[in-house]
Amino acid sequence: MKFDPVIVKINSVDGFQGGEEDIIILSTVRSNSDGAVGFLSNRQRTNVSLTRARYCLWILGNATTLSRSGSIWADLVRDAKDRQCFFNANSDKDISRVLAKHKIETNKVKDRKSTPFKVRNSGVQVPSRSGMNDESPSTSTGIGGFPGDTEENVEDITVKRIPDTFSSLESYLDSFTCPLIEEVHADVFLSLDGYAHANFIEVVRMEKLDNEKFIFGFEVSEPSKDEKSRETYDPTEGDIIVVSTQKPKHVSDLTQNKASYVLGSVLKCGDDEDFPTDCCIVQLSSSIPVEADPETKMPKGAIFAVFLINRKTYNRIWKCLRLGANDGNLANLQNKSSTNMVNLVRQYKPKVVEDNSSQVSQCLKHGSVDFLGLEKLNLNASQLNAVADCVSVMENQLSSLKLIWGPPGTGKTKTISTILWAMLIKGRKTLTCAPTNTSILEVASRIVRLVRGCSDGSACFLSDIVLFGNKKRMKIDDGHELSVIFLDSRAERLLPCFEPNTGWRHCLCSLIDLLENSVTKYKYYIEDVLEKRKDIEKETAEKDKGENVPWRMQFGNGSCEKKCGRPEDKEEASRLLPFKDYLKDGYNNLSQNLSYCIEILYNNHPRNSGTERSFQCMLEVLELIKILHGMINCYKGNADIWSDELLETMIEEDSDPVLWSEQLVSVQTSTCIKSKFRLARLLCVQELKYLVKNLELPNYYSIQPIKLYLLQRTKCILCTVSSSFRLYNVPMDVSRSGICGPFKQPEKANLLEMLIVDEAAQLKECETLIPLQLPGITQAVFIGDEYQLPALVKSKIADNACFGRSVFERLSLLGYSKHLLNVQYRMHPEISRFPVATFYDGKISDGSNVTNGGHETAEKNGRSLKNTIEVATVLRIVQRLFKEAVSTQSKLSVGVVSPYNAQVRAIQEKVGKSYNMYDGFSVKVKSVDGFQGAEEDIIIISTVRSNGAGSVGFLTNLQRTNLALTRAKHCLWIVGNGTTLSNSKSIWQKIIKDAQDRGCFFDANDDKDLSNAIIKAIIELDDAENLSKMDSMHISRPRNQGQTTVHEKSEACKIQFVWTLEISYGVGVKACLFSCHSGLPKEENHFVDIPRIYRFQRPPTG
C-alpha cells in the first residue's frame, strides 16, 4: 500500500501566523542557568506558538531555563507537570541516544570566535530620507527617503511615542512620520547585515536615460535555475539595490572600497505591461563605477545589482500620511481621499459606540439579516451576531467602525466570507484587505467556494468578485482555482470582447445583419463573385500575353479575398455557393463567434440590477442560436424555411422583454417548421438588438483599461493592504453597466462602501490608512486578535514609539467594543486549555468537532454529509461477509443503507463491482428511500452523524428510521456514533437504551484486524484529518476469538463477529460498532459500529 508523504513545514513563529497544522513541534532554543528566554517572553509570540496545532503539540526545551524565566513559560512548565504531560528526554532510549551522539559530535568541533559586524558603524552610506516616491521618479537628490524633504542626518530626527488619542487629524497623521523614517533606515541597515546572503543578478547592458539625473536602463541576465544559487534576483518596482562591481560576499566589500558601489532604486521593471521582462529602469545615488561601451551598451567590467529591500509599501504609507498636508505633488490624491473614516478612528467616543451596540441588538431582534440565506452557512451564535451587526449598519447613513475579535481557530475567515456573501446579495461594494498574500488568498478561496457551493439563484456570481495583486508572488496560473477571479486573468479573457473590429458589438451586429438581410446579402455576394470571375478572366488573358501579374489583396464588402495565379485559388474565388450553403456557412461562423463572446461575458463581466435582463438575454440567445443552427444545417424536411418571403419578413422593433422567456418556450415546443423558424429568427434578432443597446462595451486594445473597467464595476474587491493604494488611480464615479445608451439614465457613482481588514492586529496603524482613506468608504470592519503577533518592526526606536501597534490594538486598549468569536474549532481541548485560560480568560469554548471527535463532513461543493470512518467500517464488514460466504459456498444478499446521498456515493465508490465475480453474493448500496419495498438477508445501516450536539438530521424522521430497521431478514448492523445518537433526543436514543438493556451494546476495544483495516481505509481515502483526530489507539487481543461462519438460510445461521474495537479520540469519543439482530432460531450476532457495539437478538421461536 502506498502512503502519502508526510508534509513537514519549518518556519519561524511569525511565519506560522494565521496557519495551522495537525501536529506542531515547538523548539524553544534557550538553554542557560539564569532563565533568560529572550523572544520567548513575548506573550503574543507565545500565544501564536501554542495555538497552531490541531491535534498534538510538542514543546522541546530546557525546563530549568524556562522555569526560572519568570515568564509565561514558567506557568506553562508547571501546567505540563500538573497534567502529567512533562517528559524527560533521557527516559526515552531512542531520543537519549540521539542526544548523546550529538553531544559527542559537538565536542569535536572547535569553537571559532568571530566579531559581529555592526552595520551602523560600518561606514556604509545609506540613503537619506529625501526622494522617496512610489510610481514616479523622485524629484529630489536622494533615493531612499521621502519627497519634499531636504537632506538631513537621520540621527537628528526625534522619534516620539505615538499617543493613544489625538487632538486633530494633522497631529494624528504627523505622529507616524518620524517613526516611519526611522523604520525605513533600520530596514536598510539590517538588510546590509545579510548582504553576504543577498540575491543578485548581473547587468549585461546599460544606458543612461537622463543627462541631469542618474537614471539608467538596465538589461539583466536570466536568473539562475539552480536552487543553491543566489543569482536569482528579479528586479521589482520599489526595490532598493546596491549596484556593485563584485558579487556580494561580505558587507566589508563595500566599506573597504566605497567607490566600488552605488545605491539605487528600481523605478520600472518587467512587471509592467509592454515592458521587457529582463529590463528595468533604476535611479542611482551617483554615477556607476563602470562605463558602458557606446555601441553595444555592454559594461566594460562586471557589474551586479544586489537586492536590499523593497520600499513600495513604505512609499505608499508616506503618501497616505501626506494626504492632509499642503503638498502640490499629492494634490490629485488629496482630492480623491476620504477623511470620514480616519476621523472616526482617531476620535474615539465610548458613549457613541455603546449606543451603537444597543442599536445592534435591536437590529438583530428585527431580523436585519433575514432572507440572506445565512442559516445554511452553519454559523455559531457569535459569528452570526458579528455578521448581522456589520450588515445592519449598511442601512444607516452614518459612518461606523466594527471590531471583530477572532482568537485562533474561531472562524475569522468564515465570518469574513459570510459578510462578503451578504454584501453581494445586497449589491453593496466592498474592499477586503489583508496584510499578506497568504491571508488574502485564503479569504478569496473561501468566498469563491461559498459562491460556487450556493449557486442556487442567490444573486451571487463569481464575476462580481475580483482579486488583484502580484501574479508571480501569488502563484496564480491559469489552472489555479482563483484564476477565475484574478484581475489579470479576467482582463485577458475579456480582451477579445472589447476589441472594436471583432468584439462584442461586431458579433452582435453581424449576426443581426445576416438574419435580417440574408437574401439581400446573398444578392451582393453573387455580384461580388461575378466581379471576381471577370477579374480572373482578365488576369488569365494578361498572362497569356506574357505579363507577370503579381499576387495582390482585394478588400471589399468587409472581407479580404486573396487573388493569385494558382488554378485552385481561381476556382475557389469564382465558385458560387447555393443560397443554402451561403447562409449555413455565414450563420455557423457568426453564431460561433457570438457564442464564444457570450460565454466570456456571462462568466466574467460584473453584474448589477441594470444588467440583469441583459444576462438573461444572453442565455436565451444561446438557446435560440442552437435552435436556428439545427434548422439551418438540416436541409431535409426544412424546405419551407428557405422562401424569400419568410427570410425577408421584417422584424418588429417594439417588443416586451418580459415576454421573451415565454416566447422562447413557444419556439421550443412548436412543431411547425415554418412557424418555428419564423418565431426563432424574430425573437433572436429582437434580443440581439436589445443587447446592442443595453450592454455596450467600450473599445479597448489592451488589458490595462479593461482592468480599470472591472475595478470600477465589481462589487467585491480583494487585495493586500499595500496593493489597495492602486485604487486611488481608479475613478469610481462611472456607470456600472458600461457606456450609457441613448435611452438610459446615468447610474450613481459606484464608490466603495465597506472596508474589511483581515488580520487587522498584524498591521501598523499607519499602514491601515492606505485603504481607510479611499473615497466612498463609510463602514469599516477590522477582524483580528491583539493577543497574537503584531506587525514586524525592524527598528527598536520605532518599536518603543509604538510604531508597530495596530489600530485594532489601540482601540481595544481604549475600551472600544468588540464582537468576540467565542468558539474554537481547531485545537484539541487539551491543547487549547492553557492558552484559552491564560490569554483569553476562559472566554473561548471548544467546538463540537474537537470535543466529540466528530468526523461527519460535507461533500465538496455540496450539502450532503459523509463519514469516512463509517465508510471504512462498512467496507470491512462487507469484506468479511464475502470471504465467509465464498468459503462456505453460501448465498447471501447484503444491503447497505444510509440516509445521506454523499455517504451512499462514498460507499458505492469503494465497493464498486468488486463482488460481481461471485454469483451467490450481492451488495446493494442505496439511500433509505431507495430501499423502500426491498429486503435483503443482511442490512448494514450507516448513520453518518457524529457530533457533540446530538444533531442527527434525517435520522429523526420516524418513517425513515422504521424503513431502515425493517429491511433485514436475518441480520441488521447499525454503524454510528453512540454518543451522538444517545444525545439526539430522538428515536435513536431509545434504540441505544434498548440495546444496552438487552446486552446488545458493545464497547469496541480489542480487535487489531478491524482497527488496522479502518486505519488503512482512511489513508486510502486520503482523509488524514480523521486519522489525525485519533488521540490514541488502544488495541489488545480480542476477548473472544470468533470465526465468521455463514450457513444456508434453511438451516440455523450463525454469524459471529467477536470484534471489539475502541479508537479513543482526544475528546473521548469511542469508535465502536453496535448492531441490531433479528434472525432465525439459535442465531447469534455480534455487529460493528463506530462508537459502541450493540446487538439486538430476537428470542428463539422454537
TrEMBL record:
DNA2/NAM7 helicase helicase domain boundaries: 378-540, 751-796
GO molecular function, one term: ATP binding
InterPro entries attached to this UniProt entry: DNA2/NAM7-like (IPR045055), DNA2/NAM7-like_C (IPR041679), DNA2/NAM7_AAA_11 (IPR041677), DUF6469 (IPR045529), P-loop_NTPase (IPR027417), SF1_C_Upf1 (IPR047187)
Name of the molecule in the record: DNA2/NAM7 helicase-like C-terminal domain-containing protein
Keyword Hydrolase: yes
Pfam families: AAA_11 (PF13086), AAA_12 (PF13087), DUF6469 (PF20073)
Residue span(s) of domain DUF6469: 226-326
Region of interest (Disordered), ranges: 120-150
Gene3D superfamilies: P-loop containing nucleotide triphosphate hydrolases
